[in-house]
Each structure stands twice: as C-alpha cells, then as structure tokens.
Design goal:
Length: 430
Amino acid sequence: MAQAEAYEDISPFVPPEPVCFVNHDRAKAIMAEDNLDALFASEDANLYYLSGHAPDSVLAHFYEPWACAIYPRHDGIPPTLITGEYDMTYCLTHPTWMEARYYGTEWTAISTMLKKVHGGLGIGTELHKPLQNLYESTLPKRQATYFDAVVDFIETEMPKGNLRIGFDDLRMGGEVQEKIGSRLEVVDGKRAFRRIRLVKTEPEIEILKQGMVVNENAVRAAGAAVKEGHSCMEMVNAYRDAVQRGGGKWLGERGMLFGAGPDGAFVLDHDYTERMTFERGQGVILDCICLYKLYHADSARTACVGEPSNYQKMMHEVVKEAIAAGESNLKAGMHSSDLERMGMEVFEKSDLPTEGATVIYHPIGLNVFDFATPEDAASGWVMETNTMVNFEVFYRHPEHGGMHMEDTTRVTETGVERFTTLPHEIIVAG
C-alpha cells in the first residue's frame, strides 16, 4: 500500500459544522432543580439530542452500551461523547460539538487498521490525514473498554466528592456505580431528559419541518393509491415507498394507522385490514407517522372511495371546525386540557353523538408523544414557546366510518406557526 506522502495533493477535508440541539439554559435549570451533577445518555434519542451522534453502530445496536454522551451541569467540565474507535471516521464526517473520547482494545481489527493508517498506510482519500490526526490527538485519553472510558471521565473530570448523576439507562448506571463506589448516587435521568427536550431549539425545528415535508408527500401518495377494487396493501406500499424516497423511515411495520370500512376504521389488526379491497363509499383513515433524522412526523387526513355521503361530509365539517377551534386559541400559557375542551364543545353543539369523538394534543419530537412527564399524558400540560405540538381530532361512527385530521404546529407567545400544508379537505379517491 502507498505511503502517506502520496496524499499531499489531495484536496483538504473540510468537516461540516457540528449541530447542537441542546437548550442549554433549560437543561441547566432542570438539572439544578433535580440536583444533578451530570446527565448520561446512552439511549438513541437522548444520545442524539445531547451529541448529534447517530451512526449505524448505535442505531443498529451492535452492542449495548456502545456510546454515551455526558452533559455536566457545572462549568469547567467538558461535555463529552464516549464512543468506540469503530466510529472515529464517522466522527470526522459527522462531528459532534462535544469533546470526543474513544475506547478500543489492542487486539481488534479496527484498532489494528487505525494504527496502520496512523503509520502512513491506507487508501488515498481526503479523510486520510484528518483520521491520522484524530487518532494521534485522542490517544492520551484512550481507554480499553466502554466502562473504562466512562469511569476515567468521572475520576479525572468530575469533582472528587459525592456525585448525583442521572442515567437514562439505570442498568448502565448500576455498572458505573459498582466501579466508582458509594460516592456516586445513580438516579433515573429520563424524566429530566424529557422535560428538557419538550421545548425545541431551532436546529430541531428545522429537522421537524423537513420531516413534515417527507411525511406529507407520502400521505398524498397514499391517498392517490386509494381506488375502488384495489387492495389496502397497495396504499400502504405507496406510503412506504414515498417515505423512503424522501429519506425517511416509516414507523412500526407500515407507518402506523391505516384503516377503512364501516367499523369506523378502528380495526387495528393490520394483517386483517391489509387483506381488504376498497369499496365505494368507504372512508379511509390516513394516520401516518415516519422518522426523519430520528425526529417524528405525524400527519392525518381522511380519504373517501368515491364521493363522500352527506353524513361523511357532516362528520368532516365538525372535525374540521374542532381543529380550527383548538388551533385558534393555541398559544404559550394555555393548558392542553382547556384546548381539548374547546374542541369537544364543537362536537357537543353538533348533531353527532359525542361518544365517537376524540380530541388530543401531544408534543412531538424525538418521541411521537414527546410528553415531558407521564402525568402530562394523563392530565395535560401548559404550553410553552417553541413546543412542537400535534393537534388531532378523530371521529368514529360504527355505520358511517371514521374521520381523522391532525396538524403539526409550533407554539409561540401569541399563537401558533402551522407547519402542516395538507388541505383541510376530504381526499376524494378513485
């Protein structure tokens, strides 16, 4: 193999700017409230939120734990990503804003390869020199194993006295505690992570916008595939193909909830419903959820096979009015339960039986239901500026089928910024 000198004429590698999703002021305030010295993230969503690190080695769960991001509350301690040498090149092309520390044992193939690259061997690409430099510059803090690296960070960077650290994986926290000793108090950090993540930063909002475009294009493709005599599975495949073309991934087996028929589209056994063929007059629920760069996009509309009946039109108008009632009053400081009540009042004033109605607000982000606490899911929460909120209204009638509508909005101090571009109309399908 050629020596390093052969690479002098290669154009220099210019890494992209690292992205930071963390709302630092909010994170530090919540950590102070919970008396946490640091947060340790090893689960996919929290690891990505803190560090921006999401290689295939993490997402494919090669081994758990594989990587973690450490976010200290106090100044003077470096926020740090710990990951394996396997991901060193990924960290060049997808740099983190954190300090990166690596682990790897001498006998592994990747360690042997990196030594050879550092010694001047390798394929002549623009990444060769930066990889040599990264390998050399990080050697002083290199550890043999994942837990060695975590323990070394705590022993060398964190204060020497008692520590209270929130882990999103308590099993990992227990392993670390066994090595550190009783001065380390391990607590469940998931609640703190969810509370911090409720309010979105601009980089997060930009990804959510991009994901909405991908999902809405796929909803349109699914609606176009609804045709009399055609199978439900053709619609599902149209949705999945469009999501993939847009760079997203459908959630679950097929993209969440699709349904049709006089049962109100409430049969959630997809293996059963996907054997069906569409019949004229059916309402078809398109409640579609995908992932884009680990963030969720969630949209819902209703199609009808042929011209909708008068009753279906009435259901749709009431659902549409309920959506408008909620969104027109949505702003920072409002409680979700009050907004849901406004939507339900529309049904109470209509000619529809109210028992078929459901009105739901839910935050959206790295979780599709991105509630800050379990209590919020049960009793609601107060809207905050820059919370991304989905408002969905659905109605189920055992004879006339279902109607479903869902929008994504950004909460502001004075109202909402509506991200959804799908029209508030029934999709009249073939």
